[in-house]
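Working notes for the structural subgroup meeting. M.R. asked for a predicted model of this chain before we commit to crystallization trials. I am recording the input and output together here so anyone reviewing the notebook later can reproduce the run.

Input as submitted:
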Amino acid sequence: MASTSAHEDVLMASPSGPPPVPSDNEPKFGGYTRFELELEFVQSLGNPFYLNHLASQKLLTNPAFIAYLDYLQYWARPPYLKYLTYPGPTLKNLELLQQERFRQDIISPDLVNALVQEGMSAAVEWHRETIA
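Returned structure, recorded in token form:
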């Protein structure tokens, strides 16, 4: 039987709903609130290399982990949306992770590189539009 770290146990626990927006009296896990842990994790999903890492660790085939990714979709709605630093790639990848085909294909370095290129192109285009 595979063991999980304490961090994975917190992430894959069956949550009853989205965490409350940060407050001073929220319980902490390793010094961090559930809100902080989930925010950091969901933001990491914007990184195609991290998605590839999750696939290489076989997490994207784990039903509990897939259910957790589904649960994290609350980040696409207010009031949580405003806490995302890069909502575009974060939410796009979270949406793609809902698809079994994408969870299988992200193991491919070609797909990872295509997503990285797409992200860089979007950043350049945004910068051009902002300056113009």
